[in-house]
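User: structure tokens for this one?
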Amino acid sequence: MSFSPLASASFVIQIHAFGAIIALFLGLAILLLRKGTRLHFWAGRIWVLIMLITSLSSFFISQSPIIGPFGVIHLLSVVTLIGLYRAVSAARRRDFKAHGRAMMALYFQALILAGLFTFMPGRIMNRVVFRSAEISEIVVLLFSLLGFAILLALAWRKSWALTR
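Assistant:
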């Protein structure tokens, strides 16, 4: 694993990548937190802000353009912005069931699904993780991802039970 491809990328790509990484881990923590607490409230606000920055920064990244500077991946950014609006609106209406569902959908669509696309060949995060990776590093990465997936499943289960 080498962070040099990310370090040599443009500032916008660095902001986008670090925002997504922070949102991934902060989002998991929020899913595991007890809902309705001040900590949940403030961590959620920070998460929304980070997701806004991450989504908006994607519009300044043009690595696979189809229409002008925009590619298919930018549709996911639009969906993320709409999802953020819906989730925050639901919380403000005190519709916590809809809020919880919207936030879980956002987390999995905007971070997990989009995160999978970042490891496609030719993308910067692919070069960060797999550049001259030895088998032992790949095995460690796979077990780390498995552990993360288990934590995610537990968090989803806990959050889903609370929103029913």
